[in-house]
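Q: My collaborator sent me two sequences in one message, no labels, and asked for predicted structures for both. Can we handle them in order? The first one she listed is below.
A: Yes, handling them in the order given. First sequence, followed by its structure tokens:
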Amino acid sequence: MNKELRRVSYVVLAMFVALFLSTTYITAFQADALNADARNSRALLASYSAQRGPILVGGQAIAQSTPVDDQYEFQRTYSQPDLYAPVAGYYTLGQGSRGIEDAMNRYLTGNANSQFFDQVNSLLTGQDPEGATVNLTLDPTVQQAAYDALGSNSGSVVAMDPKTGKILAMVSKPSYDPNPLASHDRQTVTDAYDSLIADPSAPLQNRAIQGDLYAPGSTFKLITTAAALESGDYTPDSAFPNPSTLTLPGTSTNINNAEGGSCGGGETATIATALRLSCNIPMAQLGQALGAKALQEQAEKFGFGDESIGVPQAVTPSQFPIEDSKGQAINDATLMLQSFGQGSDRVTPLQMAMVSSAIANGGTEMNPTLIESVLNPDLSPVEDFSPSEYGKPISSQTAATMTDMMVQDVANGAASNARIDGVDVAGKTGTAENGPGEPYTLWFTGFAPAADPEVAVAVVVENGGGQGQSAFGNSVASPIAKKVLEAVLNK
């Protein structure tokens, strides 16, 4: 009898241990995932009955919870919505969440694993639960300058501190008002959401980091140049034949330089001249000489294709494909187009800001981030959000060489409208074609001051800035970038 009791006791003990381990695992390691699950209505009701933490920019709340007299107790309100909505996002009843509201939800609700003891303390003391405060890296002056400079254009501006990766400005237009989405009336939320989804201008899309992405145009020449210098086989003075028109191999398609004619005159054109004057033909020849694999590897070092990049919102990976839709290796004609940012190249403005930041920071690329800090209600830090290194896509020597070349691009080349009196600005423009009759996509990316950079920027303007195929990156995007750079330098 005692033997049978012992067996039963062992089984009961084993079951107890299994239950204890499983509940501990769920509580300690799966809490974030369970709280974030859209099917968890209990978590949704709890999140509305608790005071959700604010989102701050420059010490001011751009999203906060205010008490209301209904079953949810608190309602989310957003200030300066058009300026910050693409970053802050929204938190709704029934339509999910977006932006920082989504990416930092577990902190804002106070349910992150790292906040477990704060939750226990609230239960023991009888205090009302309260979420953490999320401080963003955005600089309100720079954000406003970028928003104003972009004007009525559709597009995006990203400004970063190249030494830390902190994002100083992230603007996406068109924008939207998230306040109707925060309503406690579900029909109001649904109507507002459906209207935004149906809007052909796609205001819910944060163009800085997501969406269908953009052809980079001549801004991609920075990556082609970096690959050439990193190979050790080329210098800025390496030269290529300099025809005014070039027929792509195996096709009847001709490519030309942006300004027409040859690249600066002469029988040959150097890499430095091709970058300064933004010439397509020498860059196409350079890309063909380097090969698709070398260009892809260099692009990947800067972050192309990396699905893990987050700010903390997920960032759509930029693309430099070396296979076609059928899985076949791209031919030389396609490679030559992609070498100067056409063909199937696709990028986010954030990615191009990261490229400029890496060059500005001596070849070291920092992880981009919107998070300055996360603080508990007692102002204690929740977790460490210190700057971190993404990688070293180029050597310090290549970075210095490219900086000199980009300074010449602004001082005496195709990016002249980004000049700032008394400041050496390094930059590169882009004018991306989108098909016959389609408006151009206009670009600028660069940094300043060149000798000790404080800010790197990327600007993209859709639909030719309202000028179809009549405008260029230098005429539209460069002046926008100049205003953003000045906003940082004049602080």
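Q: And the one she listed second?
A: Here it is, processed independently of the first:
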Amino acid sequence: MSISTHADGRATRHDKWLLKTMNDPRTKRYHATRAARLRIVVAHMVTTAVGLAGMVGAYAWAAAWPLAALLVALVVWVPLTGLLNSMTRGLLELRVRVLDERQVAERGEVHARAYRINSWVMTAALLGFYIAWLADSSMAGLAVPLAATGLVVWALHRLLPLWIAALRVQDEPEDDEVAPPA
């Protein structure tokens, strides 16, 4: 029997570990303010773009050297992804059985928004390729743009929910100091 599943819906050791990891108080200081969260999201987007450019560059130039950009981006991207998961408290990584009703609703809203945005991106991409076809572009001429577009749409499909969830996080209220009784 696998350690990660229970038929009765109870949280497993893996669920508990992941919940603890996603809510580690040591990372809270890195994303405590809205400005800090925005910087992390933008840095993650830029790092993702650099990595994707390395992948597309390797394809476009049929060379391995652009993959160096991907490797460098990956070194930065992984900890940034961890910070995004921390600031969302694992909203998208945790299983539904360890989320409360508010978190499940928030997760659904985030996925719905990401779906709508990505639908418009795919529509724009298809329209662009249709226009290129009407302009008699050759398939060979469209190979790199098609590969890049497919990669970007896939990356958006995977990452937009995380970015949206991170941008929706609210500042936590400050602890009120309790005045000593008079």
